[in-house]
Structures are given as structure tokens and as C-alpha cells.
Amino acid sequence: MNVPSNPITLMAKVYRDVFPVVHHELAMWKERAYHIPNDELHSQAIASIEHKTFHCEGGGILALLANEHREECIRFIVAYQTISDYLDNLCDRSTSLDPNDFAALHESMLMALSPEVEGGGNYYRYRDDQDDGGYLDELVETCQDVLKKTKHYDKIAPVLHELACYYCDLQIHKHVKLEEREPRLQTWFEAHKENLPEMSWFEFSACAGSTLGIFCLVAYAFHDELHDEDIAKIRQGYFPYVQGLHILLDYFIDQEEDRIGGDLNFCSYYENEQAILDRMKHFVEEAEKSIGDLPHAKFHRLISRGLLGIYLSDQKVSAQKNMHKMARRIVKYGGLTSRFFYWNGKMYRKKTAQ
Prior knowledge:
The chain is mainly alpha-helical.
């Protein structure tokens, strides 16, 4: 199977070969979540699947890079993203705001990337709600099982863990007590600043908050050949700029929702709307440059430009006049390709809402 290199063939494969498998996997995990004994864990597991399906749909597109191993790769992507979304819900709804609790929960995300390790201990050890009937362990084991079937796990493992550590550290720092969040995130940024291109602490946080680089590496690990220089290119291609663009767009459309809920939103730290537009444009341009040397560069360019269309076609944007106006400007940064995905996203959401 050829990796798609234009928007029309990409979306044809997505609707035919990706979404049905993603929805099948999610339905299986949702059925499994219904049997979680603890009421709070049960409700958060169900909610994370019902309200964040599009995370798995979007991540699943990268499984097209795995060619004939696409379905196995989707198994990993859905399981790993489901862990991420479930833990995010648990941290968001936490009453303790205890960083030790958040760190313990997120040990599961590192364990999921460690197929050589069995039994990760009790991830819920710092909270009262603990009995998930083995749900989180099964998600972890599914990820491990898929990684065992890849041909180059040992080669990609260091980068997988690097990207996962960024993600887990972010989740810990951003969910603690309100007054501790910014200082912790800023201190964390200072520790990594010298290895990053010029950016702000909240932009670095955005770059850390995406799982796309992990999914991309796992997809390539199914190939017969994967060279060390390709792994380095994939890592540099997705982190920081593609991942940063991904999460900045996510926060951009959630601004009003987060303001009402009192949640941390990275886009709120920009001094004005023009600053948001300028930095979005910068991330779009740098993402384009960073993926130029990747294998299947045209596919990765579609992913990068597709992020603009997929996120900015969300109904949350249309409901807010000023944000809608900004979104139309940002979409143009990705040219005709992003506009294609923008209108495709609108039609898909309209169809699935019926």
C-alpha cells in the first residue's frame, strides 16, 4: 500500500481504512470501560472515549505509514491515546491536586512504551478511587503487545521515552494547584531551554503536549528498514514544531471553554490577538521546514497542514465571531491544502452530528 501524498487520496484512505478500525477499537475499549467497578473511574473512562474520539481519529491517520501493518498500528494508537485522554480526565477532576498522584498515574504511559517490563504496580496508589477492574493495565499491555511486533523497537525506544517524558512532565505540572502551575512550568522550561529553538515557556509546554511524534515513530518501526538518521529526522520533524502547532491549535479553539472553567490555556498568555496570529504563522512555517527532509515528506506535510483545517473547522470556532475571523486567517497560512481539510472537516462534523 502506498503512503498517500495528496489530500484527496489521503481522505479516501482515512474514511475507508482508518476511521472504521479506530471506531471498532474505541467501541471495544468503551465496552471494557463499562465494567469498571469504581464509579468515578468508570465515568471518567467512558467520558474520555465519548468526548475525545477525534483524538484517536486524528492519531490513527499516522498508521497509514505502517502500510500492511496499519490495523496493528491503530491498535497501539487507540490504546495509547485512550490512556492519555483517560488520565487527563482523572487529573482534570482531581480534588487532591497532588503531583505525586499525577506522576503515579502517568507511569502507565511510560510502562506502555516498555514491552520488556511486566507489571507496573498500582498507578492509583495516591488516590481513593482505585478499582478499575484491570482497565488501565489492559490498555498498557495492548500497547506493549503491539510494540513487541514492531521490527525496530530497540532503535526507537529512546526517542519514544524522551517524547513521553515531556508529555508526562507537562501533565504533572499543569494540573497542580493553580498558584504552582506557572512557576513549575517556567522552571521546567528553563531546564530544557538551551536545547530548543527560541520560544516561550508556554509554547514549549504546547510542544510537549502532543503524542503525534510517538505515533509516527511506532508506525515507521513496522518497516523492514529504519535507519538511525531517519529516526533523528522524525524526532526533529515532529518535535517541537508539528507537535507545538497541534497543541496550540487545540488550546486556541478551547479558549472560551477554559476561561469559563478556570483551566490553564497556553494561548491566553499571548499579549494580544496579533501575537497569536504571528506565532501561529511562525509554527506553521517552521513545521513545514522541519518535515521537509523526512521520508514521505508529502504525507507529513499533509498532516501538518491538515491540523489547521481539522481543528479550525470545529464548531467551537464558528460559535465565536471574533475567533472565527482569526481562524479563517490562520487556515490561509496552510494554503489550499489546509482549506481543503477545513471544508472537509466541516462536512464530516456535520455528517457525524446528524
